[in-house]
Amino acid sequence: MSQSTVATDLLPFADRAFQDNPYPYYKIARDHTPLYESPLGVFAVTRHSDVFSLLRDKRLSAAELDFGVANIFHDSVLGMDSPDHGRLRRISAKWFTPDRISEWITETRRIVDKALDEGEAAGGLDACQDLSFAATFGTMAYILGVGTHEAAECRQKVIEMGRALRPAATDADVIGAQEAFAWYVGYISDLVAYKRRNPGNSLLDAFLTAQESGEMSEAEIMATVTLFYAVGHLDNSFLIQNGVKLLAEMPEERRLFLESPEIRNDMISEILRIDTPEQFVTRVALEDMDISGETLPAGGIVLGMIGSANMDERVFPDPERFDHTRPDLTRLQMAFGAGQHGCHGQLLARAQAECAIGALVERFPNYRISGPVTHQHTEFIRNIYTLPIEFH
User: Fold this and answer.
1) 240, 264 in Cβ contact below 8 A?
2) Around 151, how many Cα atoms within 13 Å sit in the side-chain half-sphere?
3) Are 82 and 60 in contact (CB under 8 A)?
4) Which positions ≥6 away from 245 have C-beta within 8 Å?
């Protein structure tokens, strides 16, 4: 293996400065080597062309990963390879068609309008807790056919779970994640029991029907619902939050978002590109693989750094500049992954972002950030924790 030895760690995952803003580090790593072996024992692929290929390469496995405290996810599409991955994906994919999305967004809009009504009375709101989280969590609960009880606890537990799924996880992170997963198992078990007592026409009902027909196990139901709750509000919330923040800082782009609904999808693609909610995907190499002349060894744990790929100047010139007119932007940005593990909830995420941000700029085109913006970023997850805005 010919990775160059460097005196300093190019991707210091554990450093707070890196977690706060990894993008300058990514550029150095991209310029230095196509394949970086981290001192933490993982290989990072940072260039767009390489990540784009890797995400579609069947020589990489999710099933061979050791998720540690999160091994429950091996019973979900996140931790499966074909054919089990395809079997589970088909059960839920029919619930995320354009027609279904239109139905779900009606509920999102109801929640958003309620939040904006309350915010108008108060003069402002927290775009994280009051707007984005309320909308995304409430919509996912609606899709699953359950209530929104203990919502704040769900949000915090997902954050704690995510802190263990990264290279620089500490012992304290692992302990916190163990407790969070245990809490979630109890929470999801109660939802499943409720659904069995109160059947209806929801996604969770579809899972229970699949279990009765032998297509899905109890463990797969537990893992899938846990995954949907986590990804269905954490990533989607950040997309909305970051869009609200960016447009507050860019008055011209905010005006375009307001006046030109036909370009909103492109603007959401650029919001996703410029600060990607999940910074990497993790796989295991099943055999030796060539990465632009470097060797990724069989058994190596590889991080496809989609956050870096989305800022690669080889594909996105002047990548720090917000530009929704970039050619082929929606296809080339990789915030939702790609290949068989590409997020099949991406249409919902885009629709929720367009709904929430659109409703905000339409009702309060002169909104502004009114206080400190706080973050809980890690090297894996981008997370705005508070984003106070006021209306004028």
Assistant:
1) no
2) 20
3) no
4) 127, 369, 373, 384, 387
Q: Domain for residue 1, yes or no?
A: no
What's the maximum distance between 2 C-alpha atoms anywhere in the chain?
62
Q: How far apart are CA 132 and CA 236, in angstroms?
A: 8
Per-residue pLDDT, averaged over 209-218, amounts to: 95
- 239 part of a folded domain: yes
14 token code pair: 């554990």
| Domain annotation covers residue 2 | no
Domain assignment of residue 91, yes or no: yes
**What is the three-class DSSP state of 159?**
helix
- 352: Cα separation from own chain's centroid: 13
In the chain, % of residues over pLDDT 70? 98
Q: What is the pLDDT of residues 15-56, one digit of tens each?
A: 999 999 999 999 999 999 999 999 999 999 999 999 999 999
In this predicted structure, what is the pLDDT of residue 5?
Answer: 46
Residue reference for tokens 């923040």: 245
Sheet containing 301-304: which strands, arranged edge to edge?
35-37, 43-45, 301-304, 281-285, 60-61
pLDDT above 90: residue 126: yes
When divided into structural domains, the chain yields a total of: 1
Nearest to 379 by CA among 227, 276, 231: 276
| Contact (CB, 8 A) for 203 and 95 | yes
Using alpha carbons only, give the angle 219, 149, 146 rounded to the nearest 5 degrees.
55
- Print burial letters for 352-373: b (CB count within 10 Å at least 16), e (below 16): bbbbbbbbbbeebbebebeeeb
Q: Is 289 left (phi over 0), alpha (psi -120 to 50) or beta?
A: beta
CATH number for the domain spanning 138: value is 1.10.630.10
Q: What is the pLDDT of residues 309-330, one digit of tens each?
A: 999 999 999 999 999 999 999 9
Burial class (CB in 10 A: 0-12, 13-18, 19+), 198: exposed
Give dist(CA 164, CA 245) in Å, integer. Answer: 27
SS3 9: coil
Query: Which residues make Cβ contacts (< 8 Å) with residue 37, sequence separation at least 6?
Result: 1, 3, 43
Q: What are phi and psi of 294, to 5 degrees?
A: -105, 155
Residue 386 CB burial class (10 angstroms; 0-12, 13-18, ≥19): middle
Q: Which residues span the domain enclosing 262?
A: 16-390
pTM of the model: 0.94
